[in-house]
Structures are given as C-alpha cells and as structure tokens.
Design brief:
Helices cover 50% and strands 11% of the residues. It is an alpha/beta fold and 237 residues long.
C-alpha cells in the first residue's frame, strides 16, 4: 500500500511569488511597460539557463546575488540596443539585484498554505535554488509561513539534480511517495518525478516561457491554473 502524503514541497519564485512585478518596478523608468516586461522575462530565463549550465558542468553552487550580477552583465552584453545598455549604471544594477529579495506572494498562495497545514495537517517546505538569506527575506516580504526552507546554498546542490531531492528526504526522514513537489517549472518537477515523488504543476504566466504546456500537462500528476484547490488535489494523489 502506498504511504500517505506527509509533506508538500514548494518551489518558491514564480510558483509562490510574483517575481515579475518586483523586477519590473526596479527597471529604469525610461523603458516602456512592454519593454520592462520582456526584459524581465528574458532575464529570468537567462538565470535558468545559467544554472542549468553550471549543473551540467558539475560546478559548485554559487551565491544567488553573485549569480544575478553575472547573468545581468551577460544579458546586457547581448543587448543590441545601446540606449538600453546605457540605462544600467552600477547603482541601477545593484538595485535590480536587491529587488529579487523583496517580492509579494501570488494571491492564492497564503490561503493554500494555511489550508494544507490546518485542514490536511501536512508539513510544508520550500525547496528552491537560491540562498538562505534570499529565502528568509522573501518569506518576510511575502508574509508566508513554511516549516523549513531548503535552499541550494544550504544543500550544496542545484535542482533538478536527483541528489537535491534525495538530500531533503534524508533530512526529513521521508520516502518519495510521502512527498509532493509543487512548482511552476517543468524541469523541477521532472527532477522530482525521477526520484519517485508526486508532482503538481501550477501554471504561472511569468514562467516556463519556452515550455510546451500541452506536454507539461501530460507529464505531471496534476496540472493547475492556481492553488485554490491544491489541498483537495493533493488529497486525491
């Protein structure tokens, strides 16, 4: 008989947090709203690409802020519009890096977490790439409450490496079929599925801009447009 679900792991940025709004607000005012949005989306994708390459190359986990500085500089180097490049002084760049530490939660997240803890008596965790300081700042700015925060910095491992998920399970003394991974990132859920976890995909328009959502829908145990019914979906797994 399969074990009862005991814990729900959440990816953080994108899945629980509206990173796009905070980054958009931190971009130079000379950019139009559409330019800001496009810039933010492509910058975020560049971060994913950078981390994926580090994982493939077997490189150690890097500080989140340091990564963001590297990604931003490389992104601006590829920007063909010199006028845009000139808007990014050292001060503007540092303001943009700092903005990643202050984000609001998507409207459906806080209540979903409360229901999981109160009604279902499940443990809820963050399992996300990034730094511990970043996660501490974000739970404060977003007003969210988790039982524990697991960062790639803390674990010394990037998702979606199997070892990352296995390390958390070892610390929590849980088995794969006792855990559900909730994320707005297909690569994350593929990693969780590979170690035997249940997976729930939550679609956020800000993320997975290169993924075929039809494929993603078929890959996971559940595919949601928000977290409003997350508790009942997890109960059905």
């Amino acid at each position: 008989m399969a074990n009862r679900i005991k814990a729900v792991w959440f990816d953080f940025m994108g899945t629980c947090l509206d990173w796009h709004s905070s980054i958009e607000k931190s971009l130079p005012s000379a950019l139009s709203e559409s330019e800001k949005s496009s810039f933010a989306l492509e910058l975020r994708q560049s971060y994913f690409d950078y981390n994926a390459k580090r994982l493939v190359d077997g490189r150690e986990v890097e500080d989140f802020d340091h990564t963001q500085r590297r990604v931003l500089d490389a992104f601006l180097d590829r920007e063909p519009n010199l006028a845009i490049k000139h808007l990014f002084s050292v001060e503007v760049k540092e303001h943009l890096v700092a903005a990643w530490h202050h984000q609001e939660a998507w409207p459906d997240v806080a209540e979903a977490l409360r229901k999981l803890k109160r009604d279902s008596e499940l443990e809820v965790y963050v399992h996300a790439n990034g730094s511990t300081r970043l996660q501490l700042d974000l739970v404060k700015s977003a007003g969210l409450h988790f039982d524990m925060l697991f960062s790639s910095e803390l674990l010394g491992l990037y998702k979606p490496a199997s070892e990352s998920y296995q390390a958390v399970m070892k610390l929590l003394k849980l088995k794969p079929d006792e855990c559900v991974m909730v994320a707005a990132h297909a690569y994350d859920l593929r990693g969780a599925k590979a170690v035997g976890m249940k997976t729930v995909y939550v679609y956020r328009w800000t993320d997975d801009i290169r993924e075929d959502q039809g494929v993603v829908r078929k890959e996971n145990d559940a595919y949601l447009s928000d977290m409003d019914n997350l508790g009942s979906v997890i109960a059905s797994l």
